[in-house]
TrEMBL record:
GO biological process: DNA integration
Record keywords, A-Z: DNA integration, DNA recombination, DNA-binding
Pfam families linked to this entry: Resolvase
Name of the protein described by the UniProt record: Site-specific DNA recombinase
PANTHER family recorded: DNA-INVERTASE FROM LAMBDOID PROPHAGE, RESOLVASE HOMOLOG YNEB
Active-site residues, as the UniProt record annotates them: 9
Family designation: Belongs to the site-specific recombinase resolvase family.
Annotated Resolvase/invertase-type recombinase catalytic domain residues: 1-144
Length: 205
């Protein structure tokens, strides 16, 4: 059986391109998820792996969809090969383990060389993005533009924000559910839970 696996890191990213390529390839089953690639502890990936057997094929769009950690990519790749599950990376045709079955040792050599290079590139890109984000935040702080997640609704807020905060507190004290407060005020549930935690901390200190 041919399994297709599509992944993006966040909910606002689109999977359509990957899904289209996997469908066009002829995958029998396609699994998709929006989950960080930092490790392989992903619910959908783990479910797919539990169904894979000897002789199956795993197809992915590119190596970064597989994972983001160099060592974990290598370990997972080797585990698949050990179980005699083939792997196809669509944007890197040389990474198709089925091509080397008749050439003893060559497939492993090619996989080792290319995989080591590409997994290093994937991890370097991840590091580069994190560094750029950190530098961007530092620059924004120096320019006074980074708000650092400043809270709008708190006991020292002014104007409309204070009115909304007081209403949330009143509703919480009246044992209204977070969902009902969300519907009434339009605030996100995370914000309401944050206010609730602040109240509880204040009451216990």
């Amino acid at each position: 059986m041919i399994f297709g696996y599509a992944r993006v890191s966040s909910k606002n990213q689109n999977l359509s391109r990957q899904l289209q390529e996997l469908q066009e390839y002829g995958c029998d089953r396609i699994y998709q998820e929006k989950q960080s690639g930092k490790d392989f502890e992903r619910p959908v990936y783990k479910e797919m792996r539990s169904k894979m057997r000897f002789g199956d094929v795993l197809v992915i769009h590119d190596l970064s969809r597989f994972g983001r950690n160099k060592q974990e990519i290598k370990d997972e790749w080797e585990a698949l090969i050990e179980e005699e599950i083939d792997i196809v990376v669509l944007n890197m045709p040389i990474l198709d383990t089925r091509k080397y079955k008749e050439l003893e040792g060559v497939g492993q050599l090619v996989s080792d060389l290319v995989l080591t290079l590409l997994s290093w590139m994937v991890e370097e890109e991840r590091t580069r993005i994190r560094t750029a984000q950190k530098e961007g935040i530092e620059i924004a702080k120096k320019l006074g533009r980074f708000k650092g997640g400043k809270k709008r609704y708190h006991k020292d807020a002014k104007g409309k924000d204070r009115v909304i905060y007081d209403e949330v507190v009143r509703c919480l004290n009246g044992n209204m559910s977070v969902m009902d407060i969300h519907r009434k005020t339009g605030l996100s549930r995370n914000t309401i839970y944050s206010i609730k935690r602040e109240i509880e901390i204040t009451e216990t200190t």
